C-alpha cells in the first residue's frame, strides 16, 4: 500500500513539472507565411548569380579613355566625357603644392567638353600606381610632350595653342571608374623624352612630388605597386 502511494505521488509531481514547462506549439500555416513575407521585406534579396558584376576599370584605363574620347569628333563626345569625369567633386590642382587651379568641378568638366575636338593627345611615358587595398583609388601618371596633354598644361587648363609651351606631367586619380582629381606640373627633367623604366622613375626628382600626393589625407591608405611603361620603346614580339 505504501509503494502504491509513493508511485501516485511521483506521478503527480512529474505531471506538475511538465505543466509548468512552456508548451511549444507549431504556428498555423498562415502565421508561417506571414513571418516569411516579413523577413523577405526586411532582408536584402540575393543578387542573381547570372547578373553581370559591376566592371572595375583602373586609372590607366580611364585616363586612356579620357584621352581617346577627348580627341574624338563623335556626336556622343560630350556624353562619353561625362561618363569618365566626376561631377562637382572633380578637382584640378598643382602637383608642386596642391593649389587648386579650377574654381569648380563642373567648370573643369565643361572645359573638357567645350574644347574643340580633334586635339591629338597621347603620353610618352606612363606610371600606373595600384594600392594593395581594393577600396583605395588608383593613379595614372602620364608624361606628355608639349601640346599632347588633353586640354591641360603645366599651369592647369589651356587651349591647344597655349599648351605648346612646355612638356607636362599629369596625375589622374580614379575611384569608382571616374576621374576624381587631376594634378598637373611641368616635366622639367624631360622624362617624357628619355628612356624610362622603374630605375629611371626612382631617380627622377618628380617622383618625390608624386609620392607626396599619394600620402596626403584622403589618398592611399595602404602599400602599393608601381608599374612603368615607355611608349617610345615598346618591345616587339616576333
Q: Helices and strands in order, then pairings?
A:
Layout (H helix, E strand, L loop, with lengths): L1 H19 L8 H14 L16 H13 L5 H8 L6 E4 L10 H10 L10 E7 L6 E7 L7 E2 L2 E2 L10 E8 L2 E9 L11 H6 L2 H9 L9 E7 L8
Parallel strand pairs: 1-7
Antiparallel strand pairs: 2-3, 2-8, 3-6, 4-5, 6-7
* Helix count, DSSP H or I runs of 4 or more residues: 7
Shape: globular
Strand content: 15-25%
Q: Strands of the largest sheet, in order across it?
A: 1-7-6-3-2-8
End-to-end Cα distance, whole Å, is: 109 Å
Essential attributes:
two-stranded antiparallel sheet, 6-stranded mixed β-sheet, 238 residues, alpha+beta, 7 helices
Describe this structure in a few short sentences.
With 238 residues, the chain is of the alpha+beta class.
Structure description:
The protein has helices spanning 2-20, 29-42, 59-71, 77-84, 105-114, 198-203, 206-214; strands spanning 91-94, 125-131, 138-144, 152-153, 156-157, 168-175, 178-186, 224-230. It has 238 residues and is of the alpha+beta class.
